[in-house]
Amino acid sequence: MQSDTFMLYKLMILYMLNKVKFPLTNAQLTSFILEKEYTNYFNIQQAISELIDDSFIAVKTIRNSSLYRITESGKETLLFFDNMISAGIKEDIDLYLQENKYDLQQEVSTPAQYFQIKKGEYSVHMKVIEQDTPIIELNLIVPTEDEASLMCNNWKEKSSDIYSYLMASLLDDKL
């Protein structure tokens, strides 16, 4: 593969991460590039891996999901090589992000994870994050890994209802 072409894939990833104010998952980065048929899955993964190795992007893993953010070094690199990304590719990325911004952000704004404290005891940690600020954090202890996993899986869909219920209950001044 031509090195300029591979560098373009890296720059596209940096451009995407620079355009959003929240982290993107591996699946989100990959789906756009594959959908537009810019390259194949393996090239994307290699590009992401090299960007991490070069400290141009940072990765945080939560429950088997990797979340990527651009670093200051990545922003400087993008600024320097920005002209290598064609106007057409930038338009494709901008349009994709504009059309999918709410869905993309929703995926990463309700993280949930669990870990075993001791035998028969699991801690479940769930959050709702708006504009990088946690508006609710909930920690629960449950007896089984199945329950912990189920809570994490349901959090994204039910967190809004739970937040609304808690706010209404806690703001109710009737005794």
Overall description:
The protein is an alpha+beta fold and about 180 residues long. The protein has 2 domains: about 100 residues, Winged helix-like DNA-binding domain superfamily/Winged helix DNA-binding domain (Arc Repressor Mutant, subunit A, Orthogonal Bundle); about 60 residues, no CATH class. It is built from 6 helices and 6 strands. The strands form 2 sheets. It has a 3-stranded antiparallel sheet with strand order 1-3-2, with helices on both faces. A hairpin with a 2-residue loop joins strand 4 and strand 5. Helix 1 crosses helix 4 and helix 1 packs across helix 5. The termini are far apart. About 20% of the residues are buried. The model has no long low-confidence stretch (mean pLDDT about 85).
Taking strands numbered 1, 2, ... along the chain, how are they ordered across the largest sheet?
Answer: 1-3-2
Order of helices and strands: HEHHEEHHEEEH
Which structural class should the secondary elements be placed in?
alpha+beta
Indicate the low-confidence ranges by residue numbers: none
Mean pLDDT: 86
Q: Write down the CATH class of the largest domain.
A: Mainly Alpha
